[in-house]
Design a protein that fits this description.
InterPro entries: aa-tRNA-synth_I_CS (IPR001412), aa-tRNA-synth_Ic (IPR002305), Rossmann-like_a/b/a_fold (IPR014729), S4_RNA-bd (IPR002942), S4_RNA-bd_sf (IPR036986), Tyr-tRNA-ligase (IPR002307), Tyr-tRNA-ligase_bac-type (IPR024088), Tyr-tRNA-ligase_bac_2 (IPR024108). By secondary structure, this protein is an alpha/beta fold. It has three domains: about 220 residues, 3-Layer(aba) Sandwich (Rossmann fold); about 80 residues, Tyrosyl-Transfer RNA Synthetase (Orthogonal Bundle), CATH 1.10.240; about 70 residues, Structural Genomics Hypothetical 15.5 Kd Protein In mrcA-pckA Intergenic Region, Chain A (Roll), CATH 3.10.290. The N terminus is likely disordered.
């Protein structure tokens, strides 16, 4: 009896261009799995001229994007520049479930109104990084809503509870007897089903998304598709250098922040953290960054390297001119100067206590904070440090300053 052979997928030639694309894919990533499969996908695309489908899913849980989100967006842009098609997937359906990744408790899902409001701003901000001409925008309610109860049950049958409990956050919560709702098991299933619906070749995400990304690979195989590869990017530590960048930790830089604020915040990070930010946020070549690091280790002031990073990031989200102006503003402040673009506030009630003035001008959140800042020598009126907490300010115009960055031009009557 003749032997039945399983058809073997063609092996496409790995050219120099394919190797370059592979190196770009791997730059600064945490994991690329499986590497051999991705190399062949790149080779096939090169040989056939058909772009690969690059998937990124984002749940619009908040309206704004910060630099931590752009780590993955930067990688998408690099793959776009190689000629591939990015699918920017807005998880309007999965947002209603709530992603349990990295959580130790259940959280309430978002309402449709919240999701819609947040999603409206997401793509506009992401377009500051991505090439809109090579970006396909999709919403996963498009195929998730029609799935219905029958389809959801059939999908759930393709994965076991034992496999689901291998997920780290579920394991920890189960051991700690912390509640796990059944609907949370649906999240990775639905994210994986997105990959089936989109026929993605690779899916990107943070390291905390690895389980969900692998689910997509598993379900594609279950549905008879060529499984996607997965690429995870490191999580970006925020301004504190400890916790991952997060609005809840108040250690973030929003990509829609004013240029001066963005520039100054980048300069505030540590000299050590700077190199990770270079690796994950800069579009400079790896060789260029390595050479810069050698110069700093040989004695060049690390602040000069940090200024280059701050100007690059600020220019990306504003303009080269805005970045130059932000540097000038920062240097002016460092010399004790007053920035040009400070808010103007009109107040009444003279003579007015200095603490009440600072609060009314929006420079402090409370009278207690005003007192504390005065005691620490952090309050200036027209450049003169104020030490008297009981000071009464007479009618007139003056510049009030709290700390290094907060200014207001006050007209007091």
């Amino acid at each position: 009896m003749s032997e039945i052979r399983t058809p073997v997928a063609p092996v496409f030639p790995v050219t120099d261009r394919v190797r370059e694309a592979f190196a770009v894919s791997k730059r600064a990533c945490d994991e690329l799995l499986p590497e051999a499969d991705w190399l062949q996908k790149l080779a096939k695309s090169e040989a056939t001229g058909v772009p690969l489908r690059i998937k990124l899913g984002l749940d619009p849980t908040a309206p704004d994007i910060h630099l931590g989100h752009t780590v993955v967006l930067n990688k998408l842009r690099q793959l776009q520049d190689l000629g591939h098609q990015v699918i920017f997937l807005i998880g309007d359906f999965t947002s209603m479930i709530g992603d349990p990744s990295g959580r130790n408790a259940t959280r309430p899902p978002l309402t449709q109104e919240q999701i819609k409001a947040n999603a409206e701003t997401y793509y506009a901000q992401a377009s500051l990084v991505l090439d809109p001409a090579k970006t396909e925008i999709r919403y996963n309610s498009e195929w998730s809503d029609p799935l219905g109860a029958r389809g959801m049950i059939q999908l759930a049958a393709k994965y076991t509870v034992a496999r689901m409990m291998e997920r780290d956050d579920f394991t920890k919560r189960f051991a700690a007897q912390t509640p796990i709702s059944v609907h949370e098991f649906l999240y990775p299933l639905m994210q994986g089903y997105d990959s089936v619906a989109l026929k993605s070749d690779i899916e990107l995400g943070g390291t905390d998304q690895k389980f969900n990304l692998l689910m997509g690979r598993h379900l594609q195989q279950e549905f008879g598709q060529e499984p996607q590869c997965i690429l995870t990017m490191p999580l970006l530590e925020g301004l504190d250098g400890i916790e991952k960048m997060s609005k809840s930790k108040n250690n973030y830089i929003g990509i829609s922040e004013p240029a001066n604020s963005m520039f100054a915040k980048v300069l505030s990070i540590s000299d050590v953290l700077m190199w990770k930010w270079f690796a994950l946020l800069s579009f400079r070549s790896e060789a260029e960054i390595a050479a810069l690091k050698v110069e700093v280790e040989a004695g060049r002031n690390p602040k000069e390297a940090k200024v280059l990073l701050a100007k690059e990031i600020t220019a990306r989200f504003h303009s080269a001119e805005a970045a130059e102006a932000a540097e000038a503003d920062f240097n002016n402040r460092a010399r004790g100067g007053i920035p040009d673009d400070i808010p103007e506030v009109a107040l009444s009630g003279a003579p007015l206590g200095v603490g009440a003035m600072l609060k009314a001008a929006g420079l402090v959140a409370s009278g207690g904070e005003a007192t504390r800042m005065i005691e620490q020598g952090g309050v200036k009126i027209d450049g003169v440090t104020i030490s008297d907490k009981a000071l009464k300010l007479q009618a007139g115009s003056f510049v009030a300053q709290v700390g290094k960055r907060k200014f207001a031009r006050v007209e007091l009557s």
